[in-house]
Amino acid sequence: MAASNKSPPTLRWGIIATGQISSWFVRDLSLSRSDAKAKHVIAAIGSSSQEKGEAFVKEWIPKVDPAPKVYAGYDNIYNHPDVDIVYIGTPHGFHKQNCLAAISAGKHVLCEKAFTLNARDAKEVFAAAKEKGVFVMEALWTRFFPLVQELQHLIHEEKVIGNVHRVFADLGLDQDLASLGPESRLKNPALGAGTLLDVCIYSLTWGLLSLDRNIGEAAEQPVIKAVQTLSDTIDVASTVVLFYPSTGRQAICTSTAMFRTPDVFCRIEGSEGHITVEGVSASCPSAFTVYSKGQSLSEGKRFTTPNPGFGLFWEADAVAEDIAAGKKENTIMPWAETVRVLEILDEARRQGGARFPVDD
Ligand SMILES: NC(=O)c1ccc[n+]([C@@H]2O[C@H](COP(=O)([O-])OP(=O)(O)OC[C@H]3O[C@@H](n4cnc5c(N)ncnc54)[C@H](OP(=O)(O)O)[C@@H]3O)[C@@H](O)[C@H]2O)c1
C-alpha cells in the first residue's frame, strides 16, 4: 500500500470467488478512468479450481497486465504477500469464515452484502478486525454512487421535496427458483438463501437513506413490521415496513423472487413534491427525477451521472482512500451501520419466519 500527496493511492486486491459479482468487480477495478481516486491492482484470484480461476481471468480481465496470479482455494489469497485487501464474493453463508480468515492473516477486507447471516456474526467479525487493526467494510456499493450522495443532499440539506414522510422501494427479480438445485445460494438456507438478504437489503437501503440523514448509532431506530412468503424455510417475497415514531415517517421496502421490478423502483414522497428513482435495479440506480407538488410527468427535473462500468469502482476508490489514510472503517458504510441493517433483517426474519441453521 503506497500513498503520497501527489499520486492517488495504490491498493493491491486479492479476489475470493469467481461468481457473478466478482466478475463485475474485477471488470470495474480494471477500467481506465480519468477521475479514478485510486490505482487498483488485481494481484491474485482464488477459486474453487485452478481451471475456473483461469477461465474467469480470460473472460473478464484478459487485458490486465500483469495478469493476476490464480490459485485453487482461498488460503493462498489470505496469505499472499502481494495482497493488501481481500475482496470476498462468496455466498453470504461463507462471509463470516472468509472474513475471519483474511483478518487473521492481517489483510484488510471488502466483503459482499449481506455481510453475514445475522448481526451477531457481524459483531464477531468487527471485533476480530478491531483486535487485528485492519480495515473492514461491507460492500454496499449502492451507497457510494455519486447519484445517491446527490439525492441525499437534495432530500436532507436542500429539502427539495420538503419534509419526507413516505418511501416505497422494491427490488424484484424473476429468478425461476424451481429450476435451481437445492445447493444453489438462492435455495440453500445454510448459504443465506431468500430475497431478504439478497435483494430486500437494497430496498431497505433506500428507505433508511431517504428517511433519515443519520446512519449507524446516530440514526433513529425505526420500528420494524415485516411479513414474508416462505417456500420451505426461505423467503420468496418479503415486505419490511420501517416506522419512525418521532415523525410518523414510513418506508415500505419490498422484495420478490417472482417478478422483475420495472425501471422505476423507488418513490420518495414529501410535503412539497416527490422523487422517483430508476435503474436496472435498486442496487444500481441510474437517474432520479424531482417533481414539485402538482408538476406533471414531463415537468420533473431529472438528475443522472455517468457510470462507465457497473458502478462498483466508487466503493473500491473509497476503500483505497480510507486505507491510505489509515482508517479502519468507512464513514458511508461504517461497522455500526452494517450491524444496524443486519439487526433490522434479523427482526424481519423473526417476524416473517425465514430461518437459517446458524440461528439455532
Ligand atoms: N450477483 C449480484 O448481482 C450481486 C450483487 C451484489 C452483491 N452480491 C453478493 O455477492 C455474493 C455472491 O453472489 P453472486 O451472485 O456472485 O454468486 P454466484 O454467482 O453464485 O458466485 C458465488 C461464488 O462463490 C464461490 N463459492 C464457494 N462456495 C460456494 C458454494 N457452496 N456455492 C456456491 N458458490 C460458492 C464460487 O466461486 P469459486 O468456485 O470461484 O470459488 C461461486 O462462483 C452474495 O453474497 C451476494 O449477495 C451479488
From TrEMBL:
Family, as annotated:
Belongs to the Gfo/Idh/MocA family.
Q: What is this protein called?
A: D-xylose 1-dehydrogenase (NADP(+), D-xylono-1,5-lactone-forming)
Native organism: Lophiostoma macrostomum CBS 122681
**Which reaction does this enzyme catalyse, per its entry?**
D-xylose + NADP(+) = D-xylono-1,5-lactone + NADPH + H(+)
Enzyme Commission number(s) from the entry: 1.1.1.179
Lineage, top-rank taxon, reads: Eukaryota
Q: Which residues form a coiled coil?
A: none
- Provide the taxonomic classification: Eukaryota, Fungi, Dikarya, Ascomycota, Pezizomycotina
**An annotated Gene Ontology molecular function:** D-xylose 1-dehydrogenase (NADP+) activity
